[in-house]
Each structure stands twice: as C-alpha cells, then as structure tokens.
Amino acid sequence: MIKILFEVSEDFIRESASPETATAKVKAGDGKNAIKALFDMIGFKQLKDQIDEGKTEFVVTPDKLDDKSKELYNNEIGEICLLAAFSETDNKEE
Question: Per the CB 3.0–4.6 Å rule, which of 12, 37, 58, 75 could disulfide with 25?
Fold first, then answer.
C-alpha cells in the first residue's frame, strides 16, 4: 500500500463550499460546467460540515467506500495519481 497525501487549506474548502463560488464558476464558463460546479460545491460543503465538527483528517481507501463511492474513486484515481507524480517532478530543479 502507498499513501498519496493532499493538503488543502480550510479557507479554500470554506470558500469552495459557498453557492457564490459555484455561481461565479458557472458565470465564468460557458454553462457546461454548471453541474460540475454544483457537484463540487456539494462535496466541499460536506467536508466543511465535518471540519465544523472538528475533523481535520480524511482517509480515503476503497475498503471504506460503498459501491457508488467506489465508482467515483475508480473514475478519479488516475488523475490523483497523475497529480501525485507531477508534484514530485514539477518542482525538481533541472
């Protein structure tokens, strides 16, 4: 098993959870991103609510997910691995 750690500021989560941020994203785009902006806002809001309860660490592993969540995990894990790889190479001095 390997670990890929992401750090996200609490302020970013809170700002991203607001309807105003989602609305601004939709207005800035061509309307195609409306569903994604709503989807993102809901996810950030769920995280914000848990942060408000004092939680600061979120561990995602396939064995903790139901079938619907595993589907999302499987759809996103490739991009997460790509980001992890880039984070190791993008800041290397040449």
Answer: 37
The first and second tokens of residue 55, run together, are 């939680």
How many C-alpha atoms does 16 have within 13 Å on its Cβ side?
Answer: 18
CA distance 37 to 90: 27
**Binning pLDDT at 50, 70 and 90, where does residue 31 land?**
low
What Rg value do the Cα atoms of the chain yield, rounded?
15
47 pLDDT higher than 70: yes
Contact between 3 and 26 under an 8 Å Cβ cutoff? The reply is no
Q: What is the mean pLDDT of the chain?
A: 89
Residue 48 is encoded by which pair of tokens? 């914000």
Total-model pTM: 0.78
The two tokens of residue 21 are: 């941020």
Contact 18, 94 (CB under 8 A): no
Q: Distance between CA atoms of 44 and 38, rounded to whole angstroms?
A: 10
